[in-house]
Amino acid sequence: MAGVLKIHSTTAGTLRIGHSWIEYCPIDGQSMTYGTWGNNPTGEGNGLLENAEPPTLKANATRSQVIDHEQERRLFEIIETYRQRGDQAWTLRTPCSTFAAEAWGRATGEQLVHQTALVSTPARLAKSIIEANQRDAVAAHGKMSIPSNHTPADAGNGNSKSSKQTLPRKSRSRRR
Fold it and tell me: Is residue 150 a part of any domain in this protein?
């Protein structure tokens, strides 16, 4: 094990349009975030930035995976590729959600969807992360049934809109 890789995506908040980024914490070091910016919050230029995500930025969707040393090598290879692009690491065609999904995919081998009609957005990536997390939950815990009037976000949180099912009570025989 080399460390833990996380992918985050938000669809609202202070950035209004959303933001996607990755976070990597090696087993023997400090956690670092990596994201591409076209509107750098620090005002120091655009491109791939490290630890630039504001502390107030909270992800709507997060996915984590332990990675080995080979996966770590691939992660830093794609990070370096984006770093070398300078301020062109973020463009309208390749925004932050493209970088986050590509970095995640290169390291883990899992391809998350980040495009709708050829446009990459943090919202689409967040949806894909949530769907992947739900698939993992089903695989780990068996088949999950969600009533048709339930949203996936309601699953398991007690927000059922369906009528409650009443189970028959066991009859108790009383001793006299």
Answer: no
The domain of 17 spans 3-144
* 155-to-60, 80, 124, 130 alpha-carbon distances in Å: 16, 39, 20, 12
Which CATH number belongs to the domain containing residue 88 in this structure? 3.90.1720
Given a cut of 60, whether residue 172 has pLDDT beyond it is: no
Report pTM.
0.77
Residue 73 maps to a domain: yes
Take residue 150 and report the two structure tokens written for it.
Answer: 């339930």
Q: Which residues contact 54 (CB under 8 A, 6 or more apart)?
A: 14, 41
Which tokens go with 100?
Answer: 């986050």
- 167: confidence class by pLDDT, cuts 50, 70, 90: very low
The stretches of the chain forming alpha helices (DSSP H) are 69-84, 96-108, 122-141
Tens digits of residue pLDDT in 46-78: 999 999 998 888 899 999 999 999 999 999 999
Residues 138, 101: Cα–Cα separation, whole Å: 23
Is residue 35 within 8 A of residue 7, CB to CB? The reply is: no
